[in-house]
Each structure stands twice: as C-alpha cells, then as structure tokens.
Design a protein that fits this description.
6-stranded antiparallel sheet, globular, two-stranded parallel sheet, single chain, Jelly Rolls, Arc Repressor Mutant, subunit A, 11 helices
C-alpha cells in the first residue's frame, strides 16, 4: 500500500479552492479525519500553528512534540502523521507554489529558511506573546478567506508573507543561522534537491548533478558544505535512505523488491548500505515501525 498523496481540493471547507486552504485546526481535524488518520504526503506547502494541545508529529521518521507555540512547516512530498494526547487547536493553511510565487515573481518560497532545504528543521517554537500576535494574523487570513471581497487573493498572500517574515526572523534566531547565503548558492541548493528527488534511484554520484547544474563537482560540494555543512554524496545517500524508509514502512513490497526499486543490484548491497546509514537492518526497521 503506497502512502497517499493529498491534493488541496480533497480537503473540506466552506469554500473550494485548488491552490489555497485555511482552517482552525480543530475544524480541520473534524472535517478531514478520514484523509489524515494515516501517514500521508501532500503536493503543497503546509504551515500549522498550535495554540493548544499536546502530542507527537512525525515527519519523515523524525518525531517532534506538539505543544502550544509550536509551528510546523512541510514541503511537498514529505510524509507526516499526527498523534494527539490532548485536543489540539490553532490554525492550519496550505497553498501551492504557484499560488504564492505567481504573485511575487521575484520572491521564491525557498528563500524562507524553513522551506529552502529539507535539512532545516520543520519546527519553530514561539513564545506565548509571539504566538498570540501571529494567531491574530492567521485569524485575519481566515476571515478574509471566507469573504468575497475585491483583492481577496492579494490580501491573503500579503498576510501570508507577513507571517512568513515573522516566522523567518524567529526561525533564524532559534537555530542560530546568522549567516546569510548568496541567492546563487540557495538556487544551486534548491535545484540540486529537485534533481536528487528526480534522479536519486539511478544517479548516485555527485558528478551527474554537477553536470546538470553546469558547475564543477568541486564547486557544488563547496556550495553544499557552506550552506548546510554536508556533502553532495551525503544528500544523495540521505534521499535514498528516506525513500527506503518510506517504502519499508508504508508499502507491502518485499525488501528484495524495494532494493531493486531503488536500483541496487543485489539485496545484500542494499541491506549493508541501509545498516551503515541507519544502524538497523531493513527487516528490523520494518518490525520496529509496524509494531508501534
């Protein structure tokens, strides 16, 4: 069974839209519990602010606490799942890349630190005061969303931008990313991640990606090292491992079939690679997550 990939128009609300959605979190859960009761992916960008509730949010096999003041950011393609210990409240919105970037042709989503790399944490912790301030902006978007007023879309996008700017200020303070990188470096990183997502199964060497980006392998490694302190090979390996984990846990394919799916010549090579990177065999990893 493959992990479902959800579209914006699958989610219930009073207004139907193919590129934007916002709701209170409690109402979102009530209306869409059948869609989000199991691990799933999205083909859009998602942002949620919790004002109440506790629990766990698992994103691509990393677990994060849900508590008041926590904000989560998801990019298209990430697998996630909510588990609540106490009733949650807050706001959630999501949108397509086109919804935002067609309005701001010179400003891209990947320029916000929580979206420009999968390597950056998907979690931001806000103070109570900042949570209250940002909640008011979410509420203003929600009210605008329910209206049929002139310049509705423009106002929503501008309010989203205000929220993203405030989040970015707090985010960079929280993770101590004081250094600002040249836009050319961020573009290379973003384009590399796109290329890896498209080709990781059959292209596992940095040289391929450097050639596609029209730069040298040395320069590519320099960019990746300076921006996220990793190598190109590490990014490729991490993407392979992430896909392996998704398939091992969320599909019913045999482990041998999964190894062939990921373009490993023999299951033994795949098993050794997986254990080297995770400390666990594929079989033990499957048992661990399916017994949760």
């Amino acid at each position: 069974m493959k992990t479902p990939i959800l579209n914006i128009n699958q989610f219930q609300e009073t207004i139907s839209s193919n590129d934007f959605y916002i709701n209170s979190f409690s109402n979102h859960l009530l209306l869409n519990k059948n869609l989000i009761s199991t691990p799933h992916k999205h083909n859009f960008y998602l942002c949620v602010l919790f004002t109440e509730g506790t629990g766990t949010h698992e994103i691509d096999f990393n677990s994060y606490k849900i508590e008041p003041g926590n904000v989560f950011f998801l990019r298209p393609g990430q697998t996630h799942f909510w588990k609540f210990d106490t009733p949650p409240e807050g706001f959630i919105f999501f949108h397509s890349r086109e919804f935002y970037e067609l309005q701001f042709l010179k400003h891209k989503l990947n320029e916000f630190p929580f979206y420009y790399s999968f390597q950056n944490p998907p979690l931001l912790k806000l103070s109570t005061k900042k949570t209250n301030i940002l909640s008011q902006l979410f509420d203003e978007i929600y009210n605008e969303y329910l209206q049929l007023q002139p310049f509705k879309k423009l106002k929503i996008i501008n309010l989203i931008t205000l929220i993203y700017i405030e989040f970015s200020k707090n985010y960079t303070n929280n993770i101590e990313h004081k250094k600002l990188f040249p836009s050319s470096y961020l573009n290379i990183l973003e384009n590399l991640i796109v290329l890896i997502n498209e080709n990781f199964k059959n292209e596992k060497l940095p040289k391929f990606y450097a050639n596609r980006l029209n730069i040298t392998t040395k320069h590519l490694n320099r960019v990746i090292k300076e921006t996220i302190n990793k190598t190109t090979s590490e990014l490729i390996s991490e993407r392979i491992i992430l896909e392996a984990k998704r398939l091992i846990v969320h599909s019913n394919e045999s482990l041998t079939a999964i190894s062939y799916n990921l373009e490993f010549a023999e299951y033994s090579y795949f098993s050794k690679f997986f254990k080297l990177k995770t400390g666990s065999t594929p079989m033990n990893f499957r048992k661990k997550y399916r017994n949760k």
